[in-house]
Design brief:
By secondary structure, this protein is α+β, with helices and mostly antiparallel strands. It has one domain. The chain contains seven helices and six strands. Bound molecules: zinc ion. The site of zinc ion has 7 residues, from α4 and α5.
């Protein structure tokens, strides 16, 4: 998972985000869509994760979404539809390395579940935080035993992020979809990893997923396609490069800076 993050505060308020990365939550009120189609709709069902007992208690109330469904649809159509829905999901990005990685990860998921991961564009905020941009999940149907892997993109948070992307992060409107693409690939790295850990923030899993994101998504974008990075992805990439394209002290420092405070919460 991934969040919009600033360095100033670690609150859970919108636009001043923290670094919670809960990867197993009780998913409520989500709209599920299989690969190839992302649509925003009303909630249909509640899905629980495999080990809900280890999941932290849900927030008392769902954060009110300050956007209408029409606004969210318009935002999607104007900003994300082309790159995420048309190109990414169909492996037709102008970045072949990412198309290839997408295929590897989704094939890996299919080998476990028999189906493509569900890609969810949620018209709600994450249960625990209005700053969570995306999250990977794995749910088991307790009746049939089938496993469904999903990636959720939280559209209200992404819209909040978009509003302040330029003045807080220096992200231009043209670049913004790339930020969401990196987020989506990061979640796919989590989703395809067979050894799930349900801890609120699992530093080793975050470290692993961000390394893979650097190697397979960010590095090709920067080196082969000249695409700049900002915010969280820039901080991980810079640390990874500084450590010699592997993990070292710079990497560990950045990981703890972004995720350390939340790791304490699971005790
Ligand atoms: Zn993550």
């Amino acid at each position: 998972m991934r969040e919009a993050k600033t360095n100033q505060r670690r609150t859970l308020k919108p636009k001043k985000s923290s670094s919670i990365e809960p990867r197993h939550i009780i998913l409520t009120a989500l709209a599920l869509f299989m690969l190839g189609a992302i649509v925003l709709t009303a909630p249909k069902q509640q899905v629980t994760t495999e080990q809900p007992a280890r999941v932290p208690p849900a927030a008392p109330a769902t954060n009110a979404v300050p956007y209408t469904e029409a606004e969210m649809h318009r935002f999607w159509d104007e900003n994300l539809k082309q790159l995420i829905e048309v190109q990414w999901l169909n492996k037709k990005l102008p970045f072949q390395e990412i198309n290839d990685r997408f295929r590897v990860l989704t094939d890996s998921i299919k080998s476990i579940t028999g189906t493509n991961p569900a890609i969810i564009a949620s018209p709600y905020y994450h249960t625990h935080s209005t700053s969570v941009l995306g999250q990977a999940g794995r749910e088991t149907n307790r009746l049939t035993g089938t496993v469904q892997v999903s990636i959720t993109l939280y559209i209200p948070t992404i819209m909040d992020y978009h509003k302040h992307a330029l003045n807080k992060f220096g992200i231009s409107a043209g670049h913004f979809p790339i930020t969401v693409l990196v987020t989506a690939m990061h979640e796919l790295e989590h989703a395809a990893h067979p050894h799930e850990n349900v801890a609120m923030t699992d530093l080793s899993e975050e470290s692993r997923a961000w390394q893979e994101t650097c190697r397979h998504t960010i590095d090709p974008l920067v080196v082969n396609h000249g695409v700049p990075m900002f915010g969280t992805e820039a901080s991980f990439y810079k640390a990874w490069v500084n450590d010699g394209r592997r993990t070292g002290q710079a990497w560990t420092n950045n990981l703890y800076r972004l995720y350390g405070p939340l790791a304490i919460m699971k005790r």
